[in-house]
Design brief:
Blueprint lengths: L1 H34 L5 H13 L3 H8 L4 H7 L5 H14 L3 H9 L2 H23 L15 H6 L1
Pfam family, one: DUF1016_N
Protein name: YhcG N-terminal domain-containing protein
Length: about 150
């Protein structure tokens, strides 16, 4: 029975997927006839992908005034949301063209920046080791020693 349910669910999901493809295709045809080829099926799928990946209206509304649709299309293939937001903010701050954006993504600027941040944190923790107090109880020293006494000994 459990196997049947899994197979049945799988088949139903595939039918739903096929049905969804037909709906998008049909909707695209209607929109192209009414508004022009900007609503071709490929673009409509990109719009759906954009809506899924950039679901926070506050972020989208502020970025829409500074980024073109082509910029957003360049960001869609990126895997992490952090990378998308990083590049979107950089595009807005530094006024990157689409070509510059593509080059920066190819150069993996986000990944390099993250690695640099991690290395910076590591350096800070390395220096913090020297700031930690020394516990020398195991030496059996008296409490009356100053650091100067230990240095001169």
């Amino acid at each position: 029975m459990a196997g049947w349910e899994k197979i049945n669910d799988h088949i139903l999901q595939n039918k739903r997927a096929e049905y969804a493809k037909e709906i998008v295709s049909s909707l695209s045809t209607q929109l192209v006839n009414q508004y022009g080829k900007s609503f071709a099926e490929r673009n409509l799928r990109r719009m759906m992908q954009f809506a899924e990946q950039f679901s926070d209206y506050g972020i989208v509304s502020s970025l829409m005034t500074q980024l073109s649709w082509t910029h957003f299309i360049e960001l869609l293939p990126l895997k992490s949301q952090e990378a998308k937001l990083f590049y979107a903010n950089k595009i807005a701050e530094e006024k990157w063209s689409v070509r510059q954006t593509r080059k920066q993504i190819e150069r993996k600027v986000f990944e390099r920046t993250e690695i640099a941040k991690i290395q910076e944190v590591d350096k800070k923790t390395e220096l913090a080791v020297f700031k930690d107090p020394y516990f020398l109880d195991f030496l059996g020293l008296k409490d009356g020693y100053l650091e100067n006494d230990l240095e001169s000994a």
